[in-house]
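User: C-alpha cells for PucR family transcriptional regulator, please.
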Amino acid sequence: MPPSARPSVLDVSLPDVSLLAAGVDAGSRDRLLGGLRKGVPDAARDAVRAIERELPVYVRPHDARYVQVLTISVERAIGHFVDLLGDPDLPSDAVTEHFRRIGAGEAGEGRGLEALQAAFRIGAGVAIRRLTEEAQRQDVSVTSTAVARVTQAVLGHIDRLAAAAAEGHAERAARQTGGVRARRRALLEGLLEPGTGPEDVRLLAADCEWPVPRTVAAVALSAPPGGRAPRPALPPDVLVGLHLDDPCLVVPDPDGPGRRRALETAMAGWDAAIGPTVPVARCALSLRLARQALLLAHDGVIAARRPIAVVDHIPMTLLGQSPELASLLVERKLRPLLRSPRRHARHKLAETFLACIESNFNANQVAARMDVHAQTVRHRLRQLEALFGEDLHDPAQRLEFHLALRAWIASGR
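Assistant: Done. Predicted C-alpha cells:
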C-alpha cells in the first residue's frame, strides 16, 4: 500500500512552540524554533550515543551503515517534532513511511520490536532534555507545566512513530509467514508428485528451511461426515496439506519416540490413515496407500479405529487397489456360499464366518461379538461346514477367506 493510501499514525494535533514560550513575542518564538532546528543534529548524535550506551543489544558496531541509518532515523524523529511545533498541520506521511520501513527491516532480520521500542524511549528522553535546554539557553521562561506538556507531546510523537514501526514489522512478518507457507506447500506438493528426485527435494526443502529427514510417512485425511474437523495442532516440521482437495500430511521420521501418539492426539476429529514409513523420495507411494486404506475403511472393508495404520492392513489395502482381483478372489473362495439356495441367509453366514476367523473359531467370543446366542453360532458353523467342508478350518486358506469375506460384505451384495 503506498504511503498516501494509508491512514497516518501521526495524524494528530500537536502543540505549537507556545508550550515553551508562553507570553513571548512572535520573534522570540521564531528564534527559539530556529535554535531548536539547528540543534537537531547534535540532539540526534546525543540520542544515538545514549542508545549505544544503554542498549548494547541494539547496537551493531561492525555495521557502519546501520549506525548511519540509526542516526538518520533519530534525526528525522526529533526534527519532525520540531517542525510540527512550528506547523502542526505539516504532513507526516514521509516520516511515517520511514519508520514503517525501519519496523519492516527489523522483521526481515528476524528481530522483535522490544529493542526498537526501548531505543525510542531513550531517544525521547534525550529530545525532551535538549528541547528544554535550548529554551533555557535562549533565556525563554520555562515553567514546570510547560515542561510537563512538552514531555507529554514528545512521548505522544514517539509513540506514533513506534506504532508506524510496529505496522511495518507486522506487515513484513505476515508476508514472510505467507511466503514460508507457500514454499512449504510447494515442498509438500513436490514430495507427493511421483518422480520427484532427491535433488529436487533437497532444493525445495532448503528453500523453506525444512531439514530433510531419512524417512517420512504420508497421512490421508477426511473430515467426518456432516462435521467440520478442527485444524490439527501438529509439530512444526510436519508438512500440512489441508488446502488440497484430498487433505493430507507429510510426517518426518514417523517412527520416532512418541510420534504416533502425538499424531493420534493431533488428528482427533479427523478420519485418518497413516501410510507406511518410506524413504523421502517415495512419499507419493505412502500417500497413495494411505488414501486407498481410508477409502476401504469408509467402505467397511477395513474395520479399525482411527487413525488406521496401513502396515496393519496391507493385504486388504493391496486387494482394494484392484477391484477385478477382489472380484476374482470372492468368486473363487466364496463360490459355495454364493451358490447357496438360501439367499436370505448368505449375509449372516458370511458375517459369522468372518467373525469366526477373527476369533479363532471360539463360539462364545463370536456370540459376544455378534450379540447372538452361542448355540446360534454353532448352528451357523454347521451350515458353513456343509458348504465349505474341510476348507473351512484350513489355516493355509484362512487369509484368502478373510480377504474375500471382507470384500464381499463391504460390497453390500
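User: Anything notable?

Assistant: The two ends are 63 Å apart (CA to CA).
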